[in-house]
Amino acid sequence: MSQETFGSYEEFWPYYVAMHSRAATRWVHLAGTLTGVAVSAYGLARGRKRYALALPLIGYGSAWPAHFLIERNNPATFGHPAWSLRGDVRMIRTILAGRDAELAATAAKWLAENPRPQVRPQG
């Protein structure tokens, strides 16, 4: 399994989107991240600092299984944690702006031009 390398975040972005080529994966990311933000904000507003852990636990806890079960790939976070966090925020903003089709097109273009990396075997 080769590790993808990129010279910049802008080079990484289409790859990141391609690793979320299925709408279900993108929407699981959205739901997990927004739920984690809501629980963290609630806890922090109540003075319970430990609730801040909800964001990474709920966010990654829902996103990573989506990669294994829906997308059948490994999360980009494993190789590029900082750029993946930035990509997740950008992807979520794009979905919330009603531009999910734009993400699907970016993923399809990248996948057409590149072999699908880190695919887990089916079955």
Category by helix and strand content:
mainly alpha
State the order of secondary-structure elements, H for helix, E for strand: HHHHH
Shape descriptor = elongated
Q: Helical percent range?
A: 55-70%
Number of helices: 5
- Poorly predicted segments: 119-123
Question: What does this protein look like?
Answer:
- The protein has five helices and no strands.
- The radius of gyration is 15 Å and the shape is elongated.
- Helices cover 66% and strands 0% of the residues.
- By secondary structure, it is mostly helical.
- α2 runs antiparallel to α3.
Helix and strand topology:
Layout: H1 9-18, H2 23-45, H3 54-71, H4 81-96, H5 100-113
Helix pairs in contact: 1-4, 1-5, 2-3, 2-4
Task: From the structure above, extract its key features.
123 residues, disordered C terminus
Please give a quick description of this structure.
The protein has helices spanning about 10-20, 25-45, 55-70, 80-95, 100-115. The chain has about 120 residues and is mainly alpha-helical.
